[in-house]
Specification:
single chain; alpha/beta; 8-stranded mixed beta sheet; 11 helices; 8 strands; about 20% strand
Length: about 270
């Protein structure tokens, strides 16, 4: 994204690009694997107009941010985000994390609890990978480096976007594929390896003392009941299921997603 609201910051040894738009309480939008902040383009516009200061960074290794090779752990991503808030003088934000970044957002709440006013987790899971899952993610990282993002993107597209969306809104599938295809392979592989080694975050949800919104696409093949488990774990949580959406409800059903987020955010403006 190259609009006038796009900036860069040096966070320790990492350069992060980010969008900063609007004024008011801060809404922090974190993209998933292997996307960039452009996946939130609609929400940046909508919620800035509703009186929020919307921050949307490209995580390290993605978009216009610096590339880190090898492995990037979930807690390192979380520390980057906390560093960006420090850089901007932002004490706390309502944090939205999608898929991989749902785990990053939970890790941010664990490592920097005072920075999270409210938590929105979208189509993610709190548990650590088992041995088979770790092996599968490392194998996927190897395949990304060997075959590139075009092959990876086409291999996961059918699990990212619901069949109904492909039929009714083919442009969404094309948009998702374009983001996956354009992601840097080294960054995507490093993040995949970090996800393989992530900790179990269930206790983070149990210990939260801020409002939580769990959003799940009704047709998300990755969910496996994770949305309900997360809503049951957090003391003050609400579960919203978005009909006719797969793993990317903010793109597949943006009006329904925005309505759910807007209703949740009212808790922070009264």
């Amino acid at each position: 994204m190259s609009d006038v609201c796009s900036f860069t910051a040096r966070i320790d040894d990492v350069t992060l690009a980010y969008t900063d738009r609007g004024e008011g309480p801060v809404l922090l939008l974190l993209h998933g694997h292997a996307y960039d902040r452009s996946m939130w383009a609609r929400q940046i516009e909508v919620f800035a107009e509703l009186g929020w200061r919307v921050l949307a960074p490209d995580l390290r290794g993605f978009g216009a941010s610096g590339i880190t090779e090898g492995i990037v752990y979930t807690e390192e991503f979380a520390d980057d985000v906390a560093g960006l808030l420090d850089h901007l003088g932002v004490p706390a934000a309502v944090v939205v994390g999608f898929s991989m970044s749902g785990q990053i957002a939970m890790e941010l709440a664990r490592r920097h609890p005072g920075r999270v006013r409210g938590l929105v987790v979208v189509d993610t899971v709190p548990e650590a990978e088992d041995r088979a899952g770790r092996r599968r993610r490392h194998t996927t990282a190897d395949a990304i480096l060997a075959g590139g993002m075009e092959t990876y993107g086409r291999s996961v597209l059918g699990r990212m976007v619901a069949d109904a969306t492909v039929e009714s809104c083919p442009g969404v599938a094309a948009e998702v594929l374009a983001m996956l295809r354009n992601a840097p392979a080294k960054g995507a592989a490093a993040a995949m390896r970090g996800r393989a080694e992530r900790r179990d975050l269930s206790d983070v949800l149990r210990g939260l003392r801020v409002p939580v919104l769990v959003v799940v696409g009704a047709d998300d093949v990755f969910d496996g009941g994770a949305g309900r488990r997360m809503a049951d774990l957090a003391p003050d949580a609400q579960l919203v299921v978005i009909d006719e959406a797969g793993h990317t409800p903010s793109l597949e059903q943006p009006a329904a997603f925005d309505d759910a987020l807007r209703a949740f955010l009212r808790r922070f403006t009264h």
